[in-house]
Amino acid sequence: MSLMRASSPxxxxxxxxxxxxxxxxxxxxxxxxxxxxxxxxGVLINIALCTITAIACEAAVMKLRNxxxxxxxxxxxxxxxxxxxxxxIPPYCAWWIPVVGTASAxxxxxxxxxxxxxxxxxxxxxxxxxxxxxxxxxxxxWVGPAEMIYGAPGLSExxxxxxxxxxxxxxxxxxxxxxxxxxxxQSVLLEQLYQREPMFNKGSIAxxxxxxxxxxxxxxxxxxxxxRIITWHAPVAMLGTLTLLSVLFYDSGSSLSEGxxxxxxxxxxxxxxxxxxxxxxxxxxxxxxxxxxxxxxVGLLTYVxxxxxxxPDAVAFAVLLMNFAAPTIDNYTLPRTYGxxxxxxxxxxxxx
Amino acid sequence: MATPGYSEISRNGLWNNNPAxxxxxxxxxxxxxxxSVVNAIGLGLATIGVLACSNxxxxxxxxxxxxxxxxxxxxxxxxxxxxxxxxxxxxxTYELFLVLGIFIPLIxxxxxxxxxxxxxxxxxxxxxxxxxxxMMGLGFTAVxxxxxxxxxxxxxxxxxxxxxxxxxxxxxxxxxPVLGTDYPGFLVAVLPPGAFLVAGxxxxxxxxxxxxxxxxxxxxxRVMPGSKRVRVTGKIT
Lengths: 352, 237
Hints:
The structure holds two protein chains of two kinds. By secondary structure, chain A is mainly α. Chain A has helices spanning 17-27, 29-39, 42-64, 69-73, 77-88, 96-111, 123-134, 136-139, 155-163, 178-184, 190-196, 198-201, 210-226, 233-248, 261-266, 270-277, 288-308, 315-332, 346-351. Chain A is built from 19 helices and no strands. Chain A is globular and about 70 Å long. Chain B is flat. Chain B has one domain (6-212). Helices cover 62% and strands 0% of the residues of chain B. Chain B has nine helices and no strands. At the A-B interface, helix 7 of A face loops of B.
């Protein structure tokens, strides 16, 4: 193998890792704003706690590995991981939940595997799943939209809830999420449920507050598409598969229905997952065909676990399971090199 | 193959060739039952007993054992001792036996035991084989206990809880709430992923310690830099 280095003036796109990461962070703004509007400042507290922990962990690991600390902090990848995890964690949970989750994400999922660019699993989702299986009660208590609980907790109440002083219990603020309501419903038709539950009759399609936040993430995702930071393949495949399955299994709203397609698209973590999680260039598939398969797999698993699994939402599990499959997908979806016949799979090429 | 000395056998079993950290054998029980210290000790003791006895027995019959059937024969010997261990646990520590469940009979498939029988006991005299089995078992048990302790502290915030399962009523309140009584419990540590994580981190720690020892050794013999005249003729001592 020759190790030649071409020194010609290469065309540069001007997109460094840091620029990409900052644009991803900027694209979450509409969704985060909607979350803050409906669920209060607990969302921002989570993001702040996650960010501080992420920076501390990243700096500590880089120091241990004798790498330049500031240089790696400046690529903002740890910040984006923290941001996505902070959005996913229930607001107003105890402070150590975001801290433990972020430390797991940065140290276990990212740096133990070799750091930026080497992690086979999406760090934010690893952090989330570690939390979900470790602290199932705290992680499934999601605060109700402000209007349904007579106002979101104020700043002092928030700090009391997060840092555990005062005598406030988060149970007073929590409500079942739309996916949980539909999941637990066994007795009434969906139509009646939608009329009865304030979560649905105040909103329009998929739960009050949740639908707006999902719409915000959709807008942010379209911005990323427009900036060509992500391609359309994985999100379209995921949303398409999810829609197809929820249409197929939608029994026009019986009491045992798994929920309407709109509920599946605009509630839970669907939009956040489709545009911000599965488009991760490191842990996802590499080629466009691969991305289509990857996205479809995430959509399929999300629906299967939501409908027949024991957790109300499933995007994180679906993403991690497909991360396992990504190398195999890449192996069988190697793009054809111009002027060559299409290889059957990448391992064949390496063997020759 | 010359029979190694007892100190070398001990070093191999406990550290250099530790079945859990270096050979990575017997990972199934290692990962499955190390949720607490008491489980780790229970399974560890059973493994030590079986390993030492099977090594002893295999070594005694090593000259009579035809080469072609040595593996089935070893498995039969191991299975005998596993059955003994199982019956003993049923008799004396029945609650612990219920907790460990299928993993006691499964000791028979622990590759560390068959590995020692085939790699050491079938080629070496009786006493060294017995010591080798005991030391390998001890090394395995030590790793089990360390993993069990880490997972129990992280996952439940206690240490030595439920020791009465093994030692009877006198150990009922040995459990130490290391992290306070209102510790929420980091469940992932007692779930299977925690076992993989802790075992992986322990292996990394062992490698780091070995690398540190190696570095110190190589520093000790390094020749000081500087213009030192090197003697090239005559007798070099």
